[in-house]
Design brief:
alpha+beta; Alpha-Beta Plaits; Sulfite Reductase Hemoprotein, domain 1; 5-stranded mixed β-sheet; NO2/SO3_Rdtase_4Fe4S_sf; heme binding; Nit/Sulf_reduc_fer-like_dom_sf; Sulfite reductase, assimilatory-type; iron
Length: about 210
Amino acid sequence: MATLPASALIQRDKETYQIRLTPPSGVVTADELRQLADVADKYDVPLLKITSGQRIALIGLNEEDMANAAEEVPFRIGGHYIQACPGTDWCKMGQCDSLGLGKTLNEKIGTAKTAAKIKVGVCGCPIGCSESHIRDIGFIGGKSGWTMVIGGNSGSRPRIADTLAEKLTEEEALDLLDRFLTHYNDTAKKKQRVARYVEEHGIEAIREAMGL
């Protein structure tokens, strides 16, 4: 049997697989897209799909091609994903640098070990195009800085995230993220997503435990 990436998913036909690539905050270059197209052509990938988490899924890979394809794609496979909108670099509505924070978060926690998988949304303004309020962790930019929210979820048990702190600089937001992940990893059950964790403990108790 071929060595499969840890995040490879068997498909409906029970023969082929899907791997999900994680471009940093959904940002890709023309050269990376050409490289990805070459891989898809080389291994006869029948479907490429952009996911809701700003990933790119290669669907229908044969098992014997998985290891080589995984080595040749231009992006990380799997890991935590960080969505980010164009922010102040491009969007006229942007109030904070969401792409910059998203890039830092990808480098900081993209492959970090956590109690359960983490989905992050980074929005450059309160309009919320990157869905921060339905992600495990969210950052929302505003005129007074970043708001950090935790405990959002979509799926079959949707939940709107709670506010952990407001009016943060980027440095303060990153420090608070470190503190929260340490607290979460120390106290959460194995594979307990942040939404269920916040439901169990309550946002006020979490804030108190973190000294907020």
